[in-house]
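Service request form, structural biology core

Requester: graduate student, group of Dr. S.
Request type: structure prediction, single chain
Budget code: on file
Notes: please return the result as structure tokens.

Sequence provided:
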Amino acid sequence: MDKCLFAFAFGLLMLGGCSARVVTVPPGPLIRVEGQPVSIRCDVKEYTGPSEQDFEWNMLKDAKGQKTKIISSFDSRYSDQSYSKRVASGDISVVRLQDNEVELKIAEVKLTDAGFYECQTPSTDYVISGNYMAQVQLTVIPNTLKVSPKTPPPVISEGSDLTLSCNVTRELIHPTYLSVTWSVKKGTTSEEILTYGPQGDVVTGSRFARRYAEGGIRLVPGRNGVFELVISRMTTSDEGNYECNGTEWTHESGGNWIKIVESTKEMGTVAVTPTGRSLNVKASPSSSPSSTSLVLSPGNSLTLMCGVTADNLPALSLEVSWLADGREIITMDRSGVVISNTSSSGAQGKKGEASLERTETGDYRLGVRGVTIENGGNYTCRIRAFINIEGRRWYMTAEKTSNPVTVKVSEIQPNFTLTLVAEVNPQTTAEPTELACRVTNIANLPLGGRLGVSWEHTSLPGLGGDPQTSHPIGSLDANGNLLPGSIYMERMKSGALTLSRVQPNTFKLRILRTQEIDMGQYVCSVSAWSVNSQGDMVKTSENRSSPLTVRWDTKRPIVNVVAKRIREASVGGSTFELGCSVTTQNIGDAGYSVLIQSQDSLDSTVRTIMTLSPDNVVQHGGATDPNRRDNLVLTKSGAAEFRFRLAGVQLSDRGYYWCDVTAWTKQQPGQAWTKASSSESNKIRINFLENGPSFSIAIKSDDSSVYPWETAKMECSLSVSGSSPKTDDLAYEVKWFFTRLRGGPASVQVASVDRFGVVRKINRNSSSDVTIERKDTHTYLLNIFGTQDSDSGEYFCSVTPWYLSASTGAWTEAQELTSSKVFLAVKFAVWDSLKLPLLYGASASLGVGLFSLVLGLVCAQCCCRNTAHLPRSRNKLMDLEMD
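Core staff response, request fulfilled:
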């Protein structure tokens, strides 16, 4: 037990030795302004005990003076009597921020609150260690901050500068700093413009940053607390209620800037008058400023003045433009560069040369030398006012156009009479037409003047559209230049239609071969041209003739087309041939365009198969399969005969076919074709049923019985009847099956070859081998090499024909065919089986017998000789002889 107490005490001692309580408050002194809120934070660290700590606040007049209790975080009766009322009213309070941190708050600090504030924490530690209190000095100074703005003008003109002056001062008792902020208020939203201080730096609002960087906003610090903000080139977006804010700051230990008091004063509401309200523009002749009209003669000079006034004219950059009848003729841009829209050539060349200059501020002069008739009209001066904001961006504030000044250029007009007659009047189509436009009683045509002519045509109802719509044929100007109309340009280029001037006062229109569309009313307009002061030809007057009607009795062109079947397509893959004969009425030499069209039924969509142009150019229609275009032929077999051939018809080709023929004519060789009439032939039907080929199968064997190790051959042949396809359009899938003699009724597949010629053999237990051989298109051989007894049984073949259908153009699978069965027997040869064993046995027996005989003789000679002693013969000669 003593050991446990000792260990516990030692642990407490170590814990107390390793940690020491630290109470901290902000570094002082703290400078605050009378009447402003004050907050002082206090926190404790490195303590033991409960996580939530208690705090007590005391106040000392000097660092070591007598303590006065202010407030406690846990004891409501802690406050001294001098502070109890302020604590009860909430003027002084303590707010817990965290378990180990509180904040002392004084709602309105007084001068008497200056002193030293002590934060104390009751001990909860096991061992007394560290500091349990901390002090900070609070200095309270009187509120001497004064903000005195100068009221800006309530209304300024757009583009003018606005100066916002604000005086911010305070009595320097302790080291404090000032800042001034300008803001603009629109409705309930206030937006800061610029802040200066407290460190002498400038901070701009987000919307005004670019404008300040480019010099549109300037800060002008003055003396004795006077600060001025200049906003240049005000616009209507700058309107609002402007405010000035002065703030007093203190720089505390640790580098923090603390706002101790601020004051905001309204400067006043500023309205910006748009430039458009004060901008005035007036145009007048220079010779008579009060007049609004001017009459000139050709060759005179035109001078007009444009006067501009505005309240903020010096702040504006002006773009000045003069317009004649709403068309801009000359412009002076903001930088003073003059851009003229008149030139010495083209349409503007008919008018005098224009110039523009500024005579003084707000006055601009337009000059036109050598005016012509074309210079007459209503002249206006257009002013566009710009303001340069943010340094580089131009803002157009207003645009106004002056009153019009009417300028008339009078000239004695030439006078003459026109007569339009038909010198050659067509009676039928394709006859020539010649019209003459004669000019008589010419008066007041100036010296060097010339005549020009223009022709117009209005079609009769039903022959060219609306009879009140006129189409220009062409014109000849004063220099004799031909300007053809768009509709008649090709005919003029080919010479089928001509415009000419046969005499100084006579103009002619000739049509080589008149068409029906040429019937209608013709009008000639003759214009008088004179030379202006620049030497250019200008039109001075123009007269129109009375309309002249050209027409004749017409016979409608008729085209008849008859289609007939030349070759019938009765089965798929056969050839269909169609012939079309064309007859015409009231059409001369004609060319024909042919369209071969078809449809599946009389109510279905019409498809165009092929076309043949009048120039014999053949094209395939959109309904033609690109892979079958070689099977289609369209030819011209006679002057008015055409043939269409479709080879290898398919089921998709069934339907109705006919010819759509259009007759075309030419006025003369080399010209474009002109449509005369068109017609369709009767319809020819292609209708046949799909009749595929018929197949039969047969099997045979060279020999029904073979000996072992011999080769057996069986042949599977097919025959085709009906619509027999081509060799390349036919393929077979062949399978061979085998039923063992003693293996039961089940049939097993031996080998197969698909329609692509790939051979597959089935794994077999027998030592024999099989192959499939294609003998010809319809014959397949099964070869069994090295036959064995296990190969005995019944064989048959199964064939699936595939053919390329002429009716559909796709590969089609026919019904599977199975042949009859052939029997193959592998014989058992007895003699062949025994002859070798017998031969080997006999040879072995004979060999053993001979060996035994030889062995016996050898033994008899060597081992069985008689060794008994015989008496020697007395007769030695006889003994020798016997030996």
